[in-house]
């Protein structure tokens, strides 16, 4: 048997083990209590797998989440919906995956149970929460959720039953640009079987690809399938490092003498075992003093899209393929080596992103010892910078005159003298044990800093440190794991596990401990598959506020790696019971009783406000279309329609962030605006089973929710704008009789309670907390009304969701740390300590919009008319140049649905423009000043106003909703001056307008910035161009008049000439016809002419005389 230090996740298990009598009795009591709970509540759990779009209905299929592009697979189905509320002209796409949902009870999957749940009305409800991206410069920061109802679907396997043999439920698995982590919450509609809610993550794995044979393989290395005991047994645990709440894929090294790592995209619910494809070269030198070479991956850090590893002194990174983040394929083809000329001794994580980027730190040895290399990761691009730039820490640490020393760690461990903690003031006594610092850890929310080694120091201001004496100086801390929500665990070099509530002074040992022994006994009684008599802890980490253990279990014939929760509350509770109990003699038997040290018996939160205003969670609801089929089961076509509707709903959300405000403040308004009046008609068709495609799309099933109710717990985080307040009430029922009456001079007696609440603020100069106590003596209870308020001091102005200040509020019931628990049939919860992260600044989901509806209405009233452009654009109405322009703006809250007129001050600047949409350009800063400043002397102003108020330097006007309006000028040197008209209509111009309240509005932390296009028509021409056009026009008109007069005078002569010409032409035509006829007929009558020649001559002469007389007559007529 190995030593217990080598198997830290559990104690050593000899063949014969005798527990203490009281421990065994306690285990039996607790086990019977749990079995009683299981009798009333059957342990049923949701079972969810991912299926590709084309594999719906197949059994035993589970796919990997790496496809990220929407699929054009639902368009043909939507073309059949000819008589439905959707617009067939719109483009409907689908997502690559579905969520397949079923459930099992007592760890067994039974189709009988699933069918029973379906027949009793059970419907799974799926809530998908999209994690905000790191780079807020590229993507909008928002807290977005979509709630879906799963659709029942029959399996495609052969079935002899009439209706169904096996079935499951399906929902689309939505994907959103900018998000690679999706939190999925599964709950029921509270009908049928009781099933515990389940929460897990669906993360996109950008380190997977398809090979030539369409197999899914890793890009970072080769996947192995044999986990051997030598990879874990006898190996100490190591920390799991990643960017908190941003890393979709986690990586863990530390396997000795191998290039092996564990990698997971499900937070180790499952995992892959890889051999990395790195070169493993050895670059030892004089300046890099490594004693030997090993293939071990010592440090591994995961960020949003990039993995970092250190092997010996070498650092590598690999960027995954995330098109949802980078809008292009920026994935690495292989591991990239960085800092090739440096000797790196340690990679350290930076747990939180900042300024739109993530960071890692590389500590150096050798020639550059004392420097660190700060790695910056932005959109998958990695760069390193050596800091400090001028000197190393080792060089400067001796020059104290030029260096600010924050704190000097004492040389020896202080003597606590039985105290739980000790303030380090320099006057205390010390032991002979040297202090050996090993690391430092900070929490940006509560500002708590821990310096640790063979000691534990805590500080909230970087100046005053407290020594926590409960941690023994004989142990040395190896690493810590923090939830950043108020909890922290410590792992020592001997694999001991200690627990601490941040802000308190008690440190509790979790393993090894009596509480752990009791917990193990109970688990073995229940034959839990998560525990074994021989096991090794691989790592310890927090997921949210829950502590988990990655453990290698060794059984007799097999071994496996499992992730299991660490029941901190149960361990502390068991430890309290085993350490504090009484045996009271009652006649002939003894009564076992336990001491409850919790100062209260009941703790509840009341009067919580509606959460969305403070959590900034935007939530949509999407139900599947109703299927017109007798069994009620959906088909592949109806599921495809569900996919398209969910996709279109999220597409409307992304498109709603536009400058011109809609008449109705809701993203779904445009979807149904033309079909709402036909709602009853579509319902009539569905009621008579005549809907096209066999489905009925209810327009009310796709909506945005603005009125979520509180859930009797503090929110995950709170956003505070300038002067915002957040209030709630804590109800505490005291243990026993905790009230006493006290009298004061000049006042009636007052009830005093021993149950007290303390509120700790991380930044008391920025926020304040007011606590009001109310004693309810008849109920042996007390109410504490707590109000958290921003003090309007610590933040300037910022873009919505950008550069928020992190702080927190901690609420502690005095004397409750580690002693108070709430037990349910599912699990135990610790009570008495609450922590809420607070983010100060401009909350996400607020925006400034151009109120085009009221602007048009008010302009029409003031100008007594309104003239739109000749070619009307309903999305961008025109304004006439000579009319006064009265702009109005709205402050729209995308979370609560509120929309109201912007009452603050703002600056309006024309920052770009052009005569057409294609020719719009941005102006330079100098041009912006000349075109907008009332101080301009270059005759370049585009507009002016009668508003007198200006900025401090008088550079620009400061306007408000009460301003008298804008008059357009377009002076000689402005870009809209002398605009050439296109066609016969007056010139037009598109102005790019920027509206901002930064520096001029003190009512909010929000720096509202709105850029929109303004279409102005009817621009005047320059005098020169107008004169030129006038002269040309006048010349043309005069010429036309003169031509007309001349034409009228010469018209009779022209008519006479034309008539004479016509007669002459006709005469020539007649003469030519006569002579032609004579010549032809003369040949045929020669003989007759000889016999009758005298008569013919006479006849010819007679005809000639007649012709001459006709010509004379015509000449006289012409003369007349």
Automatic annotation (TrEMBL):
Residues 1085-1120 are annotated as: Disordered. Residues 44-203 form the CATSPERG N-terminal domain. InterPro entries: CATSPERG, CATSPERG_beta-prop, CATSPERG_C, CATSPERG_Ig-like, CATSPERG_N. Residues 1101-1113 have a biased composition (Basic and acidic residues). The keyword Chaperone does not apply. Keywords: Membrane, Transmembrane, Transmembrane helix. Residues 207-400, 403-609 form the CATSPERG beta-propeller domain. Pfam families: CATSPERG_beta-prop, CATSPERG_C, CATSPERG_Ig-like, CATSPERG_NTD. The chain crosses the membrane at residues 1027-1055. Residues 713-839 form the CATSPERG Ig-like domain. Residues 865-1066 form the CATSPERG C-terminal domain. GO terms for cellular component: CatSper complex; sperm principal piece. This is Cation channel sperm associated auxiliary subunit gamma. It comes from Callithrix jacchus. The gene is CATSPERG.
């Amino acid at each position: 048997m190995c030593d217990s230090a080598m198997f830290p996740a559990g104690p050593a298990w000899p063949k014969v083990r005798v527990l203490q009598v009281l421990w065994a009795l306690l285990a039996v009591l607790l086990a019977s209590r749990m079995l009683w709970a299981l009798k009333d509540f059957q342990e049923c759990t949701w079972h969810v797998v991912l299926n590709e779009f084309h594999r719906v209905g197949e059994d035993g299929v589970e796919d990997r989440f790496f496809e990220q592009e929407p699929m054009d697979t639902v368009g043909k189905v939507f073309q059949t919906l000819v008589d439905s509320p959707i617009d067939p002209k719109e483009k409907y796409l689908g997502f690559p995956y579905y969520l397949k949902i079923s459930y099992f009870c007592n760890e067994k999957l039974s189709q009988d149970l699933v069918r029973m749940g379906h027949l009793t009305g059970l419907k799974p409800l799926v809530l998908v929460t999209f994690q905000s991206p790191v780079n807020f410069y590229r993507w909008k920061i928002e807290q977005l959720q979509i709630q879906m109802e799963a659709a029942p679907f029959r399996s495609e396997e052969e079935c002899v039953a009439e209706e169904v043999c096996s079935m499951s439920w399906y929902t689309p698995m939505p994907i959103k640009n900018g998000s690679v982590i999706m939190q999925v919450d599964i709950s029921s509609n509270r009908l049928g079987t009781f099933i515990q809610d389940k929460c897990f993550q669906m993360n996109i794995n950008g380190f997977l690809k398809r090979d030539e044979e369409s197999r899914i393989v890793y890009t970072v290395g080769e996947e192995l399938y044999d986990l051997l005991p030598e990879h874990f047994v006898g190996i100490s645990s190591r920390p799991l490092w990643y960017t908190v709440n941003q890393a979709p894929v986690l990586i863990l090294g530390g396997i000795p003498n191998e290039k092996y790592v564990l990698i997971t995209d499900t937070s180790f619910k499952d995992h892959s075992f890889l051999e990395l494809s790195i070169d493993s070269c050895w670059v030892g030198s004089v300046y890099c003093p490594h004693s030997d070479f090993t293939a071990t991956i010592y440090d591994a850090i995961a960020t949003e899209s990039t993995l970092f590893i250190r092997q010996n002194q070498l650092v590598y990174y690999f960027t995954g393929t995330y098109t949802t983040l980078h809008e292009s394929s920026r994935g690495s083809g292989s591991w990239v080596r960085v800092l090739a000329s440096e000797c790196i001794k340690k990679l350290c994580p930076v747990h939180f992103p900042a300024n739109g980027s993530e960071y890692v730190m590389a500590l150096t040895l050798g020639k550059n010892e004392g420097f660190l290399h700060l790695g910056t990761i932005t959109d998958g691009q990695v760069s390193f910078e050596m800091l400090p730039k001028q000197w190393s820490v080792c060089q400067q640490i001796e020059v104290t005159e030029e260096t600010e020393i924050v704190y000097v760690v004492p040389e020896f461990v202080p003597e606590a003298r039985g105290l739980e903690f000790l303030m380090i003031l320099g006057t205390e006594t010390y032991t002979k044990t040297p202090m050996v610092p090993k690391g430092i850890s900070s929490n940006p929310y509560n500002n708590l800093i821990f310096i640790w080694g063979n000691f534990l120091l805590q500080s909230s201001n970087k100046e005053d440190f407290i020594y926590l004496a409960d941690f023994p100086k004989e142990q040395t801390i190896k690493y810590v794991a923090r939830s950043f929500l108020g909890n922290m665990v410590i792992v020592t070099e001997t694999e001991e596990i200690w627990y601490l509530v941040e802000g308190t002074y008690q440190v509790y040992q979790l393993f090894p401990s009596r509480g752990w022994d009791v917990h193990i006994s109970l688990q073995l009684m229940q034959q839990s598959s998560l525990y074994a008599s021989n096991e090794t802890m691989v790592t310890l980490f927090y997921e949210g506020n829950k502590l988990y253990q990655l453990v290698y279990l060794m059984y007799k014939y097999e071994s496996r790696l499992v992730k299991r929760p660490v029941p901190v509350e149960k361990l502390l509770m068991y430890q309290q019971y085993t350490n504090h109990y009484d045996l009271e003699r009652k006649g002939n038997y003894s009564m076992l009783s336990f001491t409850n040290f919790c100062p209260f018996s009941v703790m509840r939160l009341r009067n919580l406000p509606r959460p969305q205003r403070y959590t900034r969670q935007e939530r949509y609801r999407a139900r599947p279309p109703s299927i017109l089929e007798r069994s009620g089961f959906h088909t592949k076509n109806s599921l495809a329609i569900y996919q398209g509707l969910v996709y279109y709903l999220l597409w409307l959300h992304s498109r709603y962030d536009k400058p011109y405000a809609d008449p109705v403040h809701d993203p779904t308004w445009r979807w149904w605006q033309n079909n709402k009046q036909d709602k009853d008609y579509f319902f009539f068709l569905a009621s008579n089973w005549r809907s096209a495609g066999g489905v009925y799309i209810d327009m009310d099933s796709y909506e945005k929710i603005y009125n979520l109710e509180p859930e009797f717990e503090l929110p995950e985080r709170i956003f505070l704008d300038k002067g915002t307040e957040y209030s709630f009430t804590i109800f505490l029922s005291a243990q026993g009789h905790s009230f006493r009456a006290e009298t004061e001079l000049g006042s009636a007696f007052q009830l005093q309670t021993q149950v007290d609440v303390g509120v700790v603020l991380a930044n008391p100069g920025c926020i304040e907390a007011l606590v009001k106590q109310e004693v309810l003596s008849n109920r042996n209870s007390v109410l504490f009304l707590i109000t958290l308020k921003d003090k309007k001091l610590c933040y300037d102005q910022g873009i919505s969701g950008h550069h928020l200040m992190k702080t927190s509020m901690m609420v502690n019931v005095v004397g409750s740390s580690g002693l108070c628990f709430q037990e349910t049939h599912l699990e135990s919860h610790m009570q008495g300590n609450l922590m809420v992260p607070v983010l100060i600044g401009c909350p996400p989901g607020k925006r400034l919009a151009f109120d085009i509806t009221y602007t048009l209405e008010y302009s029409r009233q003031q100008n007594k008319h309104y003239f739109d452009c000749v070619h009307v654009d309903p999305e961008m109405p025109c304004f006439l140049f000579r009319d006064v322009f009265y702009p109005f703006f709205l402050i729209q809250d995308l979370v609560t649905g509120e929309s109201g007129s912007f009452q603050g001050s703002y600056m309006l600047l024309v920052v770009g423009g052009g005569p057409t949409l294609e020719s719009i350009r941005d102006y330079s800063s100098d041009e912006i000043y000349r075109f907008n400043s009332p101080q301009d002397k270059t005759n370049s102003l585009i507009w002016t106003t009668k508003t007198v108020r200006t900025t401090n330097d008088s550079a620009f006007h400061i306007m408000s909703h009460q301003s008298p309006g804008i008059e357009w000028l377009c002076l000689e040197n402005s870009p809209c001056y002398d605009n050439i008209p296109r066609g016969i209509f007056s010139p037009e111009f598109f102005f790019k307008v920027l509206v901002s309240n930064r520096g001029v509005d003190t009512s909010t932390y929000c720096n509202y910035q709105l850029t929109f296009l303004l279409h102005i028509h009817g621009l005047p021409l320059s005098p020169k161009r107008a004169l030129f056009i006038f002269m040309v026009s006048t010349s043309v008109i005069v010429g036309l008049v003169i031509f007309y007069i001349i034409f009228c005078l010469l018209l009779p002569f022209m008519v006479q000439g034309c008539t004479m010409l016509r007669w002459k032409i006709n005469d020539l035509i007649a003469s030519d016809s006569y002579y032609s006829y004579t010549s032809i007929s003369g040949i045929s009558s020669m003989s007759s002419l000889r016999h009758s020649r005298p008569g013919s001559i006479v006849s010819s002469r007679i005809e000639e005389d007649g012709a001459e007389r006709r010509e004379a007559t015509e000449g006289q007529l012409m003369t007349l």
